[in-house]
Amino acid sequence: MSTKSEEELAEGSLVSHLVELRTRLIRSALSIVLIFLCLIPFAERIFTLVATPLMDRLPENATMIATQVASPFIIPFKTSLFVAVFLSMPVILHQVWGFVAPGLYRQEKRFASPIFISSVVLFYAGVAFAYFVVFPLMFGFFAAVSPEGVTMMTDISSYLDFILTIFFAFGLAFEVPIATVMLVWSGLVSLETLGKARAYVFLGAFVMGMLLTPPDAISQTLLAVPVYILYEGGLLLAKVLGNQGDAPADADDSDDTDV
């Protein structure tokens, strides 16, 4: 094959990949837009639900406030938009998987579906953990340590930015087992090396908690401890998948030998 033909083939392959990437990005965006349109009529209820962990722990006669003129109108819709993004995660991750899948081997594709489902479940588990466990403890702590004479009244825009950071932090942190499996699976890091790095991971989990959560020991610990436990779970999962992946290969080798 001539150099010109190779260049044309590479260019055509690149263009086809870019077209597919654009298609999958459009599908992801459409899923967010459609869910957002369905949530618009319930925007105020959604914001109330999201704000419940804080409002339940505000001092008596204290309320949330809006420091900007348009905030009471914009923030509920903004909240609904981010909820639409959270609800669209299965579609978004499915589009990512559909784009990556053609480059995987058959043996890798066999484990891809469980990993895809696990990544979605773990992301939502992280968000649920933040909402039902972290927020009540954290906001209760903040309300308890407020100085005398200071009334805790949080701006709704600042609150939304704060909880979105926490949601994404815990959602991504709960993906640690998947990241661990992928590192071992890709061959970038061996299982033995990750096992020897436990002390560094334990320290790094608390550093991550310090950077991604408010400066209080409760929220930092509530992020760091699950991250480390999930890391150990990822090591165990990588070991199990590695053992299962070796068996078919050995069987294939034995079949070839017999022939």
Strand content: under 5%
Low-confidence blocks of residues: 247-259
What is the general shape?
A: flat
Give the overall pLDDT as a whole number: 81
The helix tally amounts to: 10
Helix-strand category: mainly alpha
- C-alpha end-to-end distance: 35 Å
One letter per element, helices H and strands E, the order comes to HHHHHHHHHH
Task: Report the strand count.
Answer: 0
Topology:
Layout: H1 3-39, H2 43-55, H3 71-87, H4 89-100, H5 106-144, H6 156-173, H7 176-186, H8 191-196, H9 198-212, H10 217-258
Helix pairs in contact: 1-3, 1-4, 2-3, 3-6, 4-5, 5-6, 5-10, 7-10, 9-10
Mind explaining what this structure looks like?
The protein is mostly helical and 259 residues long. It is 81% helix and 0% strand. Helix 5 crosses helix 6. It starts with a helix and ends with a helix. The C terminus is likely disordered.
Question: Which features would summarize this protein structure in a list?
Answer:
single chain, mainly alpha
Quick structural gist:
The protein has 259 residues and is mainly alpha-helical.
